[in-house]
Amino acid sequence: MFFAAAAVTGAMFMGLAAAPKLMVESGAYIFGLAISAQIMNVFALKMAGVFMISTATLAMRTHILPRWITLPGYALAALLLLSTRFADWLPLAFPLWVLLLSIYILVENLRGTKPGAAG
Predict the structure, then answer these.
(1) How many domains would you assign to the chain?
(2) Could you write out the DSSP letters of every residue in 41-59?
(3) Which domain holds residue 43?
(4) CA–CA separation, 4 and 96 (whole Å)
(5) Is a pLDDT exceeding 60 seen at residue 119?
(6) Per residue in 69-96, pLDDT tens?
(7) CA torsion, points 72, 78, 81, 86, in degrees to nearest 10?
(8) Chain centroid, CA 73 distance in Å
(9) Would the pLDDT of 117 be above 60?
(10) Is residue 118 part of a domain?
(11) pLDDT tens-digit series, residues 16-66
(12) Is residue 50 a part of any domain in this protein?
């Protein structure tokens, strides 16, 4: 989704550089901005939610992550998938959950314990 939004934005700026007056007057500039915003703020967030659900499910079923990481993953993913309007903090849900997950994995690797190992 990021690359699709970047492609639309790049094409829009190429058109703006070639014929700025025509681009603005025709409405293509506003249309390109709207498409890019929708791709990044709606569809990319939905895809992040699907990724979070699949990762949390995999981690929970294989017991490689504790429940205190997977359950917030489900909750944040539900917010991403079910949100109908854009909230300012919502795009931070995915990277913050990935940061939490990454810190947990890093700490467990530095301790020398294997995730999910009973002991």
Answers:
(1) 1
(2) IIIHHHHHHHHHHHHHHHH
(3) 2-111
(4) 23
(5) no
(6) 999 999 999 999 888 676 778 888 899 9
(7) -80
(8) 12
(9) no
(10) no
(11) 889 888 888 888 888 888 898 888 878 888 899 999 999 999 999 999 999
(12) yes
- Cβ atoms 2, 44 nearer than 8 A: yes
- How many Å apart are CA 108 and CA 49, to the nearest integer? 25
Residue 60 lies in a domain: yes
Specify the higher pLDDT residue, 64 or 113.
64
Q: Can you give the pTM of this predicted structure?
A: 0.71
Asked if 98 contacts 69 with a C-beta cutoff of 8 angstroms, the reply is no
Between CA 21 and CA 103 the distance in angstroms is 50
The residue with tokens 């994995």 is 105
* Rounded Cα distance, 23 and 109, in Å: 54
CB of 73 within 8 A of CB of 53? yes
* 116, part of any domain: no
